[in-house]
Amino acid sequence: MTNSTWQTREATIVMADIRGFTAMSESHTPQVVMETLNRYLSRMSEVAVANGGTIDKFMGDAVMLHFGLPAPAQDDARRAVTCAVQMQVAMDELNLENHQLGLPALYMGVGINTGNVIAGTLGSKLHSEDTVIGNAVNVAARIESFSLRGQVLISESTYQQCGDFVQVEGPMEVLMKGKSDPVILREVLAIPELGLAVPRQEIRKSPRVEVRIPFVYQTVEGKVVTTSEHKGVVHDISYDGLLAEVDSMVMQHDDILVRMDLSLVGSDMQELYAKVRSIREGNGQRMAGIEFTTVKDDIERDLRRFVQLLLQGAQQK
User: Fold this and answer.
1) Stated pTM of the model
2) Has residue 202 been placed in a domain?
3) 20-46 pLDDT, tens per residue?
4) Which of 303, 245, 249, 248 is nearest to 273 (CA)?
5) Total structural domains in the chain?
6) Could you tell me the CATH number of the domain that includes residue 38?
């Protein structure tokens, strides 16, 4: 392979990934996992080809597509977004079939970005493949990491090429690894002229990520923070709250003050007020669903940055 085999072109990249696939694969037999995965990959491939997309690669339970190569067209971004929406619709249909066959349901998140990529053949005489690489591909993967179940997120560059073709929600700003400034994303809700709507699977507005972070909390009685400190462990965190292991002193509906070390973003959260929304016990653990109630602007910013950075790391594993 020589440098002349590589070309820089504009393309729209679609990244799709199954949510919770690791947990699903651990709770089912290899035969069930592979049958379910192959049915998913087959259906997504059909949708991609029908929209003129190119399947770049399968990465386990993830799919990477590109539009605009080898020959670019004015509607590349529109076809990419149409493909993503139809993929989510197809997931609903696939899950109905899976239920009838006794197979587990699957839920997918999708991220889309438009930009310059380097296209060519990568590898050696032993193995090679045609692929695209570059920052635009990396950004698409980052965008996908923010998507919830059933969601399609697009970059501003993709949105600008779609115009009024798509109905979106947003904009929303996220922090991406390797970028100093926030990146604007938009959620695709529908494509009105095609009669397509995204079958969103989650109502949550915030992604969440599994962690193991020690934290300290104090109960709040009236408007007074009690002096007794308790220690717990955060098991997952989102913009809006925590799922945490707590002791027997904490009860449902308690108001608490949470303190955590978020050194990843240079923050030491000292004033994060929250309410215990639920308590459940099992396997020797007492887990509390905790919702943030009063959050200062600077702490909210640091919390979002923390979740976003952790989330991108988790999706790469």
Assistant:
1) 0.73
2) no
3) 787 788 889 999 999 999 999 999 999
4) 303
5) 2
6) 3.30.70.1230
25 to each of 28, 146, 150, how far by Cα in Å? 6, 22, 19
Give the pair of three-digit tokens for residue 60: 């386990």
Predicted confidence at residue 56, as pLDDT, reads 95
Instruction: Annotate 97-147 with DSSP letters as a single string.
Output: HHHHHTPPP--EEEEEEEEEEEEEEEE-SS-EEEEEESHHHHHHHHHHHH-
CA distance 226 to 270: 15
pLDDT at residue number 191 = 97
Q: How far apart are the first and last CA of the chain?
A: 30
Q: State whether 185 and 242 are in the same domain.
A: no
Residue span of the structural domain in which 270 resides? 208-315
Do 75 and 54 share a structural domain? yes
pLDDT category of residue 59 using cuts at 50, 70 and 90: very high
> Do 215 and 186 share a domain, yes or no?
no
